[in-house]
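Let's practice the habit of predicting before peeking. Look at the sequence and jot down your guess about where helices and strands might fall. Then scroll down.
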Amino acid sequence: MNRRFTVAVLLLSSLALAQEKMYQVPESQLTEQQKAKFQGASPKDVRDWVGLGKEIGMAVNESLSAITVQSNNFAQTPVGKLTVAVVIFKVIGDPAIHLLVGTVEALVLIPLWIWSYRKFLPRRVVKSQEYGENGKKKLVVYEDLEIKDDEEWRGGHWAALFLLAIIILSTIFSY
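Done guessing? Here is the structure:
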């Protein structure tokens, strides 16, 4: 966009520099025909043009107010309400649906991933517990549970999370 603006400015400036040379001549050296050509418009001509501009402005104002009134009347009918709903859906419907579906995917898939990570990866488990005289836990001893091939499981879960993120983000932003 910036490049187009720069090109347009350069082209217009080159056109301005390519114009003919201008000379100033005193009015006394002009012929009567030249003076008549450059003479200003008469007050009657100016009045006619002002009147024409006023009439055009009034006509445009009346037509726009008629369009506004009729479109408001149409929007109050059942067909008009349906048309407004279709136009609104065409403008914001697709992004709204993508956002809604992506949010639902995130709300379902991320808790599923967390559950799977906690269930299948090594974690600490309680080895023994000691209780005091009042029945409260006094000491809890944990041990690390070792699972075979835990690095592969961990890598697979992180790859799955990366894939889920790509799926969720592409659902939301692919409109």
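How did you do? The radius of gyration is 40 Å.
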